[in-house]
Amino acid sequence: MRNVKFATEEFYHIYNRGVDKRDIFMSPYDVKRFVLCMSLFNAEDPVGSVYLDSRRKKKELKLRSSASHKSKKLVNFVAYCLNQNHYHFILEPLVDDGIQKFMHRLSTGYTNYFNEKEKRSGSLFQGRYKAIHINSNSYLLHSSVYVNLNYKIHKGLNKKWMDNLPISSFVEYTEKSLKSFCSKEIILGQFKNQKEYRHFCETTLPEILKKKEADKELKNMLLD
Questions:
Q1: Domain 11-221 is in which class?
Q2: Which stretches of the chain are DSSP H helices?
Q3: Number of alpha carbons in the 13 Å side-chain half-sphere of residue 73
Q4: Residue 32 and residue 60: Cα distance in Å, rounded?
Q5: What backbone torsions phi and psi does residue 204 show, to the nearest 5 degrees?
Q6: Residue range 165-224, pLDDT digits in tens
Q7: What single DSSP character describes residue 161?
Q8: Where are the domains of the chain?
């Protein structure tokens, strides 16, 4: 990972994978848990702990915290994708050290949950998350394509049970009826409508994948 100095009002591609390329999601519940953590840990004030109430037949997530989750967010999510053994985010820090604080809480909280559930110990992720500064609008648009459609690149990697889960923000970008999790205006504001953005993604992804062989930085972004 290159040393990246994070700054507010800038955008960053953040990614990491399981240690030894191991799966970080073993069930649909794990994915839902991770998505919930993406939301709950994204606050300046501590949110307490998220835990599994094993007394309920349906495995529901509950929040145990005396702090309000209405505090200021640490980061804006622009796009995300969750694969069986790795994830990709595009984040915009909203406060100083926003990305560092959020990623620490997310990785620590989810690892603690995962290790307890799977009866294992040690690191779940392969070292510290990787970060690349997105330093131009063109790079931002292309990164949004790469992240939003990353699950298609790794289609053979993901288990079938992941198909109907919220593993990518692409659906949020292309379907009007969905509740918004990401801050999409920086991307969608540059297109006439969602249909035009979908077309941009579908035509741009092959170009990105073709270019990656010659582009060392893009090659490093891929987590094979």
A1: alpha beta
A2: 28-40, 98-118, 137-148, 150-153, 170-174, 185-188, 194-211, 216-221
A3: 15
A4: 10
A5: -85, -35
A6: 989 999 999 988 667 899 999 999 999 999 999 999 999 999 888 877 666 555 555 555
A7: G
A8: 11-221
